[in-house]
Amino acid sequence: MCEELCGDAILHDYTNTTRCDDGNLYTSDGCDELCLVEEGFTCDNVKSSKSTCYETCGDGLMLGYYECDDGNNEDGDGCNSDCEFEDCWTCDTTLTPSYCYISDNYKIYVSEVTFDDDKYEITIKFNTDIIVQEGFDIYNAIFLEVEGPLAPYNMTWYLVGSDFIFEK
Ligand SMILES: [Ca+2]
Ligand SMILES: [Ca+2]
Ligand SMILES: [Ca+2]
Fold first, then answer.
1. Disulfide-capable partner of 50 in 9, 30, 70, 95 (CB 3.0 to 4.6 Å)?
2. CA 146 to CA 130: how far, in whole Å?
3. Number of the ligand closest to the Cα of 38
């Protein structure tokens, strides 16, 4: 049994999927400085050879090697089995996993939930820019309801940022 030397591109313990040797001691390329497979990566381990590491597609994590990662390897849901965008879909890749929706339809979706000082803050987004005519009562046009075991909840909502354009 040869001694394992990390970074020499020769992997003796090739059947252990948590181990790798990509020939360097750099991190963020899938195989870290201790020759451990990094989170979100998969390495192909060949006996006594250099490991080839690549970002895992379908685990929901975006590490910069794919267009999107919606947490699965299915086609037809906006982010395909190779983690590429699909036609007629838009994906919000700032979310983990990526959230994809059909571009043609106006939709509202929950984009973020944070908890602070006994309060939940829920950010709701439209999937596209919304143009509202001046004088339109947006606050009475949108009805929001939160359901749960402790309902009714006290709730306030307001528009955030400059994404809302009031057209004259
Ligand atoms: Ca490396
Ligand atoms: Ca991924
Ligand atoms: Ca998919």
1. 9
2. 23
3. 1
Residues with CB in 5 Å of ion ligand 3: 70, 72, 74, 77, 79
> Left, alpha or beta for 28 (phi > 0: left; psi -120 to 50: alpha)?
left
Cα 12 to averaged position of ligand 1 atoms, centre (Å): 16
Neighbours of ion ligand 2 (CB under 5 A): 55-56, 59, 61, 69
Between the CA of 61 and the centroid of ligand 2 the distance, in Å, is 4
Q: Rounded to two decimals, what is the model's pTM? A: 0.59
**Which residue is associated with the tokens 């990662």?**
69
Per-10-residue mean pLDDT, the chain, length 168: 83 90 95 96 93 96 96 95 92 94 75 85 79 77 81 81 55
DSSP 137-155: -HHHH------STTPSPP-
Angle in degrees, CA 85, 94, 37, rounded to 5: 85
